[in-house]
Structure formats: structure tokens, C-alpha cells
Amino acid sequence: MLTNRRLLSAGLAGLLAFVAAPSLAEDLPSRDDPSIAAAYEEGGRYFTEDDIPTFNVAEDGTVDWRTFSGFRRYHAECHVCHGPDGEGSTYAPALKVSALTLDYYDFVGVVAEGRQKVNASENSVMPSFGTNPNVMCYLDDIYVYLKARGTEAVARGRPPKKDPKSDSIREDEDACMG
To answer: pTM for the complete prediction?
Structure first.
């Protein structure tokens, strides 16, 4: 009987420690953070005060074109390793977190050049996508989608409403894809 009480007490203490522990989400910026929030728009593209691509989600849930395109491109090229909706997998990390914690230019560099970490406790390889136009022509779209997922501004799954593709985005896409 004493053993069961000790086990129960230890189990409750462990549960309380787990519930009381701060989560990673508390340390991440929210969608209203100036480093995330859209400060201005150009041709259907949204940017932060620091000129970094970001998302725009209207009150009714309508996402900007690049966020919608990012969902499509992420699921065509990235989810096989990184899991659906940027959630991560046993194989690769959650990119919805990386888009919030990694500097934009570092994010672009890792995708373009790849990265390899091999040591006694880790063996991970991110291949280079620098020559893949299906990734590089849409890298900002993927990035803003992952930022929107990381802040929970966009729920899991296909965004139900989207803004139309602007002429400017269409022209840039055509030029990049050849």
C-alpha cells in the first residue's frame, strides 16, 4: 500500500511538473509581434517592417495568395520529410518552428545550400534545393506559410479561402519558371 501511494505521489508530481513547465510556444513570437506582422503590401506580397516576407490573414480567415501557394508548395516538396503542415516528423524537424526561430536569410541559405550535421548524437542531412525551381521560385511562399503555421494564424490543412493571385506575382512566377 505504501508503495502504491509513493508511485501515485511521484506520478502526480511528474504530471504537475509537466503541466507547469513552460512550453516552447510561449517563447515564440505571436502573429501580432512586429517581427511577424505585416507592415506593408506590394503587389499582393506582404512584408514586415524589416522588409521580410510575411503572411496576411483577414478576420474571415482569407489568406493572402503567397500563404496559400506556400501551403501547396510545402506539401508538394517538403512534407515528405518535415511532416504535414510543418509539424515535423521523426525524420526531420518542425519547420513551422524554424520559420519563427531562424533568421529569414539563414532559412533561405539552408534550403538553397542544404545542411549536414553529423556527430556522436546526431546524423541529419538537409539536401540542397538551390537548383530546384519548384522550391526556389516559391521559397518566400513556403516561408510565409510556415510562419503562419508557427503562429497558429493558419490552422492545419488547406486554407479554405484565399486572395486571388496578383498580376505581379504571376509575372514573377512566369519569369522564374521560364
So the answer is: 0.79
